[in-house]
Amino acid sequence: MNIELIALIILWWALIAYAVLGGADFGAGVWDLVAFGRTAERQREFIRHALGPVWEANHVWLIFLIVGLFTIFPPAFAALSIALFLPFTLVLIGIVLRGAAFIYRAHATEQQGKFARSWGKVFSLASLLTPFFLGVSAAAVASGRLLPESGVASATYVVSWINPFALVIGLMAVMLCSTLAAIYLTVEAQAARDHMLMQAYRLKAVFGGGVTAFLGLLGLLLAPYYAPILWQGMLMRALPIAIITMALGLGTAATLIQGRYRVARVLVVVMTAFMLSTWGLSQYPYIIPPYFTIEGTANEPSVILVAVICVLIGLVLLIPSLYYLFSVFKLPYPAPGIRNKGRGPTRPAKTSNSD
């Protein structure tokens, strides 16, 4: 195995980490948007508590992915930056607005400000649109139509990401993030002994998973026409991984129905990893099919070696730090009827201070 392939595998794992961690953050914002009924405000408060300590920490994986891509595969990074300039710009705006709105809403709610609801809408809409455009961008790359026939990237060539396949994958990304978030929130509600929210998020998880599966099937039906390279690659190299992905999806649904929420959380993470691995194997050996291959866009081996060593050193520091962050701040959140009975830790008066 050559050094550029090792580097690409590391970057792909960073993509998976961002999907299962950062994606769940986006999904929580989607559920914040559609919360309704008598428990709507209680649902939003629970989401604020769940996101509060780590609301921007998971973006470290996106930063890691971007830096690694332009260091190790600079021509591919340049082509992506030009061809997907508009959707990437919208993603960046969405991330910034989402982060700013989350903290502004926390302060407005704390001070009983009149703009709390407005900031909440900004947070929720940004959480919806950001994964959509990330999914659209991924579909544009996977389709093999990101670049025109000349092979030269152009920001005005929008056919690659404005087509039925890309739009379906964009919606699928939103629903996958929503499903991840719903399952994570179900586990947290179970730990908090809040059975009402636990059941509510379980239903959301089952619904989100069903819609994700439907959109995935629709994407497979469109792939032979809009992403032939991806389709042929999946049939030749990644079909077993795709079948395992589907089986994991069914297993996730079954464990949710059975009430085995922690098992469902593990299964949905593994399913997401297998789904993204299916994509990677299907378009191998291309980074941007059909013009940019792994070997053709890789930097000098000496540069890649230094980058990989630095990445491994960084991961030794990063992973324990993130684990410590989660273990310190992700404490149980008691249900309303339990908080005042002296059982379990209570929620701090000012959640925004932990940010």
UniProtKB/TrEMBL annotation:
<keyword id="KW-0472">Membrane</keyword>
<dbReference type="GO" id="GO:0005886">
    <property type="term" value="C:plasma membrane"/>
</dbReference>
<feature type="transmembrane region" description="Helical">
    <location>
        <begin position="122"/>
        <end position="141"/>
    </location>
</feature>
<feature type="transmembrane region" description="Helical">
    <location>
        <begin position="205"/>
        <end position="226"/>
    </location>
</feature>
<keyword id="KW-1003">Cell membrane</keyword>
<feature type="transmembrane region" description="Helical">
    <location>
        <begin position="79"/>
        <end position="101"/>
    </location>
</feature>
<dbReference type="GO" id="GO:0016682">
    <property type="term" value="F:oxidoreductase activity, acting on diphenols and related substances as donors, oxygen as acceptor"/>
</dbReference>
<feature type="transmembrane region" description="Helical">
    <location>
        <begin position="6"/>
        <end position="34"/>
    </location>
</feature>
<keyword id="KW-0812">Transmembrane</keyword>
<keyword id="KW-1133">Transmembrane helix</keyword>
<comment type="similarity">
    <text>Belongs to the cytochrome ubiquinol oxidase subunit 2 family.</text>
</comment>
<feature type="transmembrane region" description="Helical">
    <location>
        <begin position="161"/>
        <end position="185"/>
    </location>
</feature>
<protein>
    <submittedName>
        <fullName>Cytochrome D ubiquinol oxidase subunit II</fullName>
    </submittedName>
</protein>
<dbReference type="GO" id="GO:0019646">
    <property type="term" value="P:aerobic electron transport chain"/>
</dbReference>
<dbReference type="GO" id="GO:0009055">
    <property type="term" value="F:electron transfer activity"/>
</dbReference>
<feature type="transmembrane region" description="Helical">
    <location>
        <begin position="264"/>
        <end position="282"/>
    </location>
</feature>
<feature type="transmembrane region" description="Helical">
    <location>
        <begin position="302"/>
        <end position="326"/>
    </location>
</feature>
<feature type="transmembrane region" description="Helical">
    <location>
        <begin position="55"/>
        <end position="73"/>
    </location>
</feature>
<feature type="transmembrane region" description="Helical">
    <location>
        <begin position="238"/>
        <end position="257"/>
    </location>
</feature>
<dbReference type="InterPro" id="IPR003317">
    <property type="entry name" value="Cyt-d_oxidase_su2"/>
</dbReference>
<dbReference type="Pfam" id="PF02322">
    <property type="entry name" value="Cyt_bd_oxida_II"/>
</dbReference>
<dbReference type="GO" id="GO:0070069">
    <property type="term" value="C:cytochrome complex"/>
</dbReference>
